């Protein structure tokens, strides 16, 4: 078998694998809602396997505008997301052990595709929640799509959405995955 | 020539200015202003938006039966907490548990708040209240500012001299004011001396179960026990009480009880009595363990004091007790050390009612009699060894040094002060910052509201050598005593804990249900922004139908676990209203004795759609 990844590259990949699995325990993405009576802000915090923050309070406020209930059950992704993370962890380790550049290309492609699908999935949910409002809701609102990153105003609430620690770690993982391509570039 | 004149004129003006500056300019002013020492009175009490007062003042509400909570130094009233009086705004006295606690009474006369103590310092956990009107003691949980227990005391005749707590809240003590025959018996007033008794209730409070227990009662001669305090440190085993009516007057007390030149301070060793009670040395009277301290050597003594003393207060270091003589206008400082010595040497001058009377000269340290100061009532303390006395008749506060008796300062109060409260001023470590004079009269200090004027409170800065009167504020009738506790000691909860095992609680909308048991209807409902759900299965989840004569229980849980989102629950024409705090479950119990349709609505403004938060109680005719 042709081993064409250097030791440095292998270390980079192993680090990437460890970071990948560690993201299971840190939040990936979050949203903060501010209103005059919530100057301290209300949080929605998304971990790969669960929602956290002021979910109940946000739900009770969202019912005014007829938004569906946020809960772990309403996002099936949260059930199998950990498996995907673990799968990537294993795949990265395998590539690191096999030291084959061609496999690395495949892995990076997979990672990029996964990332795109993930972002698309988030967008899909934000659109679903923001535009599929209960017509019986007491407060009628123009449908809206909260941004994945950025600021948005809905009624009296200003929302900020942003990637959290886990999200940044995934960017770092990507960098660590591409690093061997540069390190072991053909001379 | 002209030049010379101009020069001399200019020189003259300059010299004049120089003289004026030297003699009249206040060079200190600028620097003092800059250092902020000369803050205006308004600045001293101004608490800007976003900042909080430094102290809570827990002020008794007298015959309103309530606790008034103030912020110090702003003197803003923050909350009225109902203790002995029903309060529809909070549902107190309407919900099942609070109704039971009030036991059918609709008022109480709350005189002296006592915050629970650890090592003689406020621990901020509970506040105890006496009811002079109906012989009760209550506990307020200071994590929620709600009344958690009320106990009725047998054999009492108005516990005016309480409540006070011993050093570690071992006991919450309540000495009685009016002597009365024991066991609710009848006895003619002619038999006052033999048949009538004064009683001290020694109650305990379990902080875990939040329940009172009457440990024992002390039976005493039929004197009137007026005020009292617990010892501290070296005097920690003792309680001190003032008495008047050593004359045993039974009518026209004001004159007849003021004949003797001397009344007494009664000292009781509670530690000794506790041991005797534990050893079974008591009689059962009306369910209470009654102990007569005269049966036990060393348990009780009397100290003569100038006639009709009012307050008796133990100094922060626990070495002295100071009596304020209402009718013999002076303060008397007694030494515990000398008292214990006199007891040791059996230095008694007399025996009254079987109680050894200690020699006044042996135990007294000094008398403090500021000229023209009339009607001393109560003593508070600062951190520099000074005492502050309210003067009811001469309407002033007198500051004096405990060690020397030297009068340091006097400031008027507006008007007729009863008690005063200093910041942590009755603990082992007073803060010496603020003193509030609790006045009986305000006269024309505030906008008129007709013949009934408010009572008033003066805020006085006691941080300097001289007292500084800062402001006066009106107050509802009628506070007696107050305690000022640092905000850091009060740990409140903002939302009740979500306890899924709590009896009668419902946490999921779909679990809301109505259950019928015979002629009882139990509604296990939820309140949330902005609707009621009584029966999740029903087409109209916010309507409940019962039959005339049914006993109805609304078990309501507020599932909005969000700060400051309280829901109310009022039923039209049924005279019912109560509230549930975030995370709380409360029960309203009543008999649906009127057929018809009765709207239900949320009475406590909860959200933009609060008005829509309503439902119906339908009572089918028989």
Automatic annotation (TrEMBL), chain A:
<keyword id="KW-0472">Membrane</keyword>
<feature type="transmembrane region" description="Helical">
    <location>
        <begin position="7"/>
        <end position="29"/>
    </location>
</feature>
<protein>
    <submittedName>
        <fullName>Uncharacterized protein</fullName>
    </submittedName>
</protein>
<feature type="transmembrane region" description="Helical">
    <location>
        <begin position="162"/>
        <end position="182"/>
    </location>
</feature>
<feature type="transmembrane region" description="Helical">
    <location>
        <begin position="103"/>
        <end position="123"/>
    </location>
</feature>
<keyword id="KW-0812">Transmembrane</keyword>
<feature type="transmembrane region" description="Helical">
    <location>
        <begin position="80"/>
        <end position="98"/>
    </location>
</feature>
<keyword id="KW-1133">Transmembrane helix</keyword>
TrEMBL record, chain B:
<dbReference type="InterPro" id="IPR026468">
    <property type="entry name" value="Nitrous_oxide_Rdtase_Sec-dep"/>
</dbReference>
<feature type="domain" description="Cytochrome oxidase subunit II copper A binding">
    <location>
        <begin position="518"/>
        <end position="622"/>
    </location>
</feature>
<dbReference type="InterPro" id="IPR002429">
    <property type="entry name" value="CcO_II-like_C"/>
</dbReference>
<dbReference type="InterPro" id="IPR028096">
    <property type="entry name" value="EfeO_Cupredoxin"/>
</dbReference>
<keyword id="KW-0560">Oxidoreductase</keyword>
<dbReference type="GO" id="GO:0050304">
    <property type="term" value="F:nitrous-oxide reductase activity"/>
</dbReference>
<dbReference type="InterPro" id="IPR041114">
    <property type="entry name" value="Nos_propeller"/>
</dbReference>
<keyword id="KW-0574">Periplasm</keyword>
<dbReference type="InterPro" id="IPR051403">
    <property type="entry name" value="NosZ/Cyto_c_oxidase_sub2"/>
</dbReference>
<keyword id="KW-0479">Metal-binding</keyword>
<dbReference type="InterPro" id="IPR008972">
    <property type="entry name" value="Cupredoxin"/>
</dbReference>
<dbReference type="GO" id="GO:0005507">
    <property type="term" value="F:copper ion binding"/>
</dbReference>
<protein>
    <submittedName>
        <fullName>Nitrous-oxide reductase</fullName>
        <ecNumber>1.7.2.4</ecNumber>
    </submittedName>
</protein>
<keyword id="KW-0186">Copper</keyword>
<dbReference type="InterPro" id="IPR015943">
    <property type="entry name" value="WD40/YVTN_repeat-like_dom_sf"/>
</dbReference>
<dbReference type="InterPro" id="IPR034205">
    <property type="entry name" value="N2OR_C"/>
</dbReference>
<dbReference type="GO" id="GO:0042597">
    <property type="term" value="C:periplasmic space"/>
</dbReference>
<dbReference type="Pfam" id="PF13473">
    <property type="entry name" value="Cupredoxin_1"/>
</dbReference>
<dbReference type="InterPro" id="IPR011045">
    <property type="entry name" value="N2O_reductase_N"/>
</dbReference>
<dbReference type="Pfam" id="PF18764">
    <property type="entry name" value="nos_propeller"/>
</dbReference>
<dbReference type="GO" id="GO:0016020">
    <property type="term" value="C:membrane"/>
</dbReference>
<dbReference type="GO" id="GO:0004129">
    <property type="term" value="F:cytochrome-c oxidase activity"/>
</dbReference>
